[in-house]
């Protein structure tokens, strides 16, 4: 079933307000401080908010449930000390983002990626400091991929599901796709939980993989990296040297350049 981008965004907004009311207490609209928060943020009054909810539910009663399934209004509970440590990718602030569902790209969202739970998180506001900010975990089962814009750079993610036995060491979930041609380069952004002075700390521990033939290789050292290129390992070694690439300090862009070079020579001399 296809939904317009306008309808999905409208549903996110309405669902956000409804769930904020649900989880924040029944008297939220009668309190002056809370009322001001909504009015200042959205330019609507308590009465108009109620009418907006009734109108939306009345006009969309038949499709409301299906839309909710797409966006998954499950409350995302903050399970960490945000001021001390968090598992969000690179920044705690929601990022400009797009999601891809059934080939349709939905733009102009603001999302975070939880690298510990592999969850895509929607926030109704621009930060996590406001008490009445609704935070929900999107339904990743129906999301094919997403794009996060962090520091003015688009990071493209795809959901990968591994069924072949040669991928038994690979974890299903979202991966950043840096290069995907004859060979591939992907990153599984992960966080590791540790307790430091009785406080949960989430240490960023990304896993980088390249695929030369069929299997993915976890990039851990220079020797195993070169070995993955088989009979072209000598050429790759020369390319690293001529390009001034030190493997231990290699950037993602440099690894992509190595794979591009390999793809250009992989069938030569065969």
Structurally, how many domains make up the residues?
3
Structural class: alpha+beta
Number of helices: 7
Give the spatial strand order of the biggest sheet: 1-5-4-3-2-6-7-8-9-12-13
Percent helix, as a range, is 25-40%
Major β-sheet profile? 11 strands, antiparallel
- Tell me the β content: 25-35%
Order of helices and strands: HHHHEEEEEEEEEEEEEHHH
Distance between the termini: 48 Å
Tell me, briefly, the overall form.
Answer: globular
How much is the radius of gyration in Å? 23 Å
- Parts with pLDDT < 50 across at least 5 consecutive residues: 19-38, 60-70
| Average residue-wise pLDDT | 77
In total, how many beta strands?
Answer: 13
Structure description:
There is one protein chain. The protein has 270 residues and is an alpha+beta fold. It folds into three domains: 1-70, no CATH class; 72-218, no CATH class; 221-270, no CATH class. It is 31% helix and 28% strand. It contains seven helices and 13 strands. The strands form two sheets. Strands 1-5-4-3-2-6-7-8-9-12-13 form an eleven-stranded antiparallel beta sheet. A hairpin with a 2-residue loop joins β6 and β7. The N and C termini lie far apart (48 Å). The model is unreliable at 19-38 and 60-70 (pLDDT under 50).
List its salient traits:
270 residues, alpha+beta, 3 domains, 11-stranded antiparallel beta sheet, two-stranded antiparallel ribbon, 13 strands, 28% strand
Q: What is this structure's SSE topology?
A:
Blueprint: H1 5-24, H2 32-42, H3 46-59, H4 64-71, E1 74-75, E2 95-101, E3 104-114, E4 119-123, E5 135-137, E6 145-150, E7 153-160, E8 173-180, E9 184-188, E10 191-196, E11 199-204, E12 207-211, E13 216-218, H5 222-227, H6 233-242, H7 252-265
Antiparallel strand pairs: 1-5, 2-3, 2-6, 3-4, 4-5, 6-7, 7-8, 8-9, 9-12, 10-11, 12-13
Helix pairs in contact: 1-4
């Amino acid at each position: 079933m296809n939904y317009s981008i306008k309808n999905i965004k409208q549903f996110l907004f309405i669902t956000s307000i409804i769930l904020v009311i649900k989880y924040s207490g029944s008297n939220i609209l009668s309190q002056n401080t809370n009322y001001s928060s909504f009015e200042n943020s959205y330019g609507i009054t308590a009465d108009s908010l109620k009418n907006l909810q009734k109108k939306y539910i009345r006009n969309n009663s038949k499709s409301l449930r299906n839309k909710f399934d797409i966006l998954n209004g499950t409350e995302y509970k903050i399970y960490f000390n945000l001021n001390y440590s968090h598992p969000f990718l690179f920044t705690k602030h929601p990022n400009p983002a797009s999601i891809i569902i059934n080939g349709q790209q939905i733009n102009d969202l603001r999302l975070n990626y939880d690298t510990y739970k592999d969850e895509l998180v929607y926030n109704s506001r621009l930060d996590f400091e406001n008490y009445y900010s609704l935070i929900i975990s999107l339904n990743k089962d129906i999301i094919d991929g997403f794009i996060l814009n962090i520091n003015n750079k688009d990071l493209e993610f795809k959901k990968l599901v591994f069924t072949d036995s040669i991928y038994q060491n690979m974890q299903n979930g979202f991966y950043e796709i840096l290069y995907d041609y004859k060979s591939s380069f992907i990153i599984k952004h992960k966080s590791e939980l540790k307790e430091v002075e009785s406080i949960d700390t989430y240490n960023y521990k990304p896993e980088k993989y390249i695929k030369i033939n069929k299997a993915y290789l976890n990039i851990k050292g220079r020797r195993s990296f070169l070995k993955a290129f088989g009979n072209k390992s000598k050429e790759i070694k020369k390319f690293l040297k001529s390009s001034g690439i030190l493997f231990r300090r290699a950037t993602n862009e440099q690894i992509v350049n190595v794979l591009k070079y390999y793809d250009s020579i992989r069938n030569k001399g065969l």
